[in-house]
Amino acid sequence: MKLLLAMPYTTIYPVGIVYISAALKRAGHTVDCTVFNNHEAFAKQVENGYDFVATGGLTSEYGKLKHITDIARKARTRTIVGGGIITSEPELMSQALQVDYGVIGEGEETIVELLSCLENNGAISSVQGLCYPEQGEYRRTASRKQIDNLDAMPWPDYESFGFDGHLDTLKPTNQYSYDVFDNPREYPIVASRSCPFLCTFCYHPCGNKYRQRSLDSIMEELKERVPKHRINIVGIYDELFSNNKERLYEFCRRFKEFTDTLSWPVKWGCQMRVGDLDDSQLETMKDSGCYIVSYGFESYSPDVLKSMKKYIKPEQIHTAIHKTMDHNISIQGNFIFGDVAETMDTVMETLSFWKAHPEAGIRLVLIRAYPDSELYQYCLREGLIKDRLRYIKEGMVDCLNMTQMTKREFNRMKTLLHLYAVKYSFYTTPLAIGPNSVTVQCPHCQETITYNNYWVRGVFYNHIMYCRHCRKRFSSVNRWHKYYAKCTPLIVVKYKIDDALGKMKAKLITKLKSYPLVWHLYHKFKRGA
What we know:
The structure is a single chain. By secondary structure, the protein is α/β, with parallel strands linked by helices. It folds into four domains: 2-140, Cobalamin-binding domain (Rossmann fold, 3-Layer(aba) Sandwich), CATH 3.40.50.280; 170-367 and 402-421, Aldolase class I (TIM Barrel); 426-486, no CATH class; 489-528. The protein is built from 19 helices and 21 strands. It has helices at 16-26, 39-46, 62-74, 84-88, 90-97, 108-119, 163-169, 215-229, 245-259, 279-287, 302-307, 314-326, 344-356, 374-381, 388-393, 407-424, 481-486, 488-513, 516-528; strands at 2-8, 30-36, 52-56, 78-82, 101-103, 130-134, 137-140, 186-189, 192-193, 211-212, 233-236, 267-272, 290-298, 330-337, 363-366, 427-428, 432-434, 437-441, 448-452, 462-466, 473-477. The strands form five sheets. A seven-stranded mixed sheet has the order 2-1-3-4-5-6-7, with helices on both faces. Strands 8-11-12-13-14-15 form a six-stranded parallel sheet.
């Protein structure tokens, strides 16, 4: 069959659809690939007589995927959609996107089997891992077993999506982890799928069974792709890179052995847990070219960590931060606030630690209920999400109060996060801004560094950067930021005023309720207003 695969545009290359392209081509199908960022151009391309338009992505990409399926449907071309958006809410999202076939879970085997079934006039209901319309509603077929042998999968087909052109346009400003080089060229690689842990805020589109590729398979791919595209950053896009120390040591040894044969430097980064981290690991990682590690900190409160099912301890977070910085490796990590177990005491517990370690560059963010995560199911049960489709359509931006805190306390928590981030984070104002460069002095080590191929955007810019000398994180801001920072006490004053007005209103309402006629007139006036 002839298919058009449409990748929603993003500066961070998605790794799902490139595997689908490789699987389809290996099965003998004719596949054209495109990056969707222009409606008119895509609409013209769809008219080239395709049997299917296939696409996919995460729930956050609903708007782009809706545009793709709408254009395909207008051209009377059938659609196949997969990824986390379908897997997390199969019937709801298949209906919203009006797809012909939704792929649930890993899609490489499912889409190939679906096309074979259609070519041979087979029964669609026999294809596992599908969601499709029947008699006016969407139904699911039986679940498909997760792919155990990841080594048997074809390598991702990045080239068909204009990968080299993408690499040529990358700038350090495209992604906070890119500024290690003036001309970053990142190769995303998947060394494992899923995660052995089930944190309440997380969702695994590839299923809950953790599977790893062999190191032979990983290194074979890197040895072919890194020289071919002159890659200088290997991004390991695993939810958890390695929970096996011996495997990690062996990877580092083989990666260094390979990159030592190249005439240019190659760095790598990954995601890891803080448990059982030691100096020997980090020293070996650093020596092999590891320059950044993303950790799942999430909270410094034991109660919140337990509620999140993190199975880590605050002291492990403390150790990971200091040991990683001691080895000159950058840290990416978040403290996320608003878990079910969050209280003002746990908020201050985490903020107090954060304030004492601002050099770690940990971001302060609010928790989100991602579709089909345990928190999402909790919010549905508690009525916090009343309209699932609306919640997803609007980008899941609602900050839901799933705690036992009052609205006033919850708002105070949000205010404190903003206050602390503005007041205690590390900032610097550029020493010089060129047409394609920026020179800054690191607020940590005082080293002066020029970043070339760097695009400073907007008047009131705020760029997250990493020092190329000490590898610590800071923000590059314009000169107006210092005045903004000085105004932060006004936020506290505003909160205190809002708090006082809220208490006055509550007392007034309580008083009004004791006078039925006045209470009735108040409600009538309120409805009229």
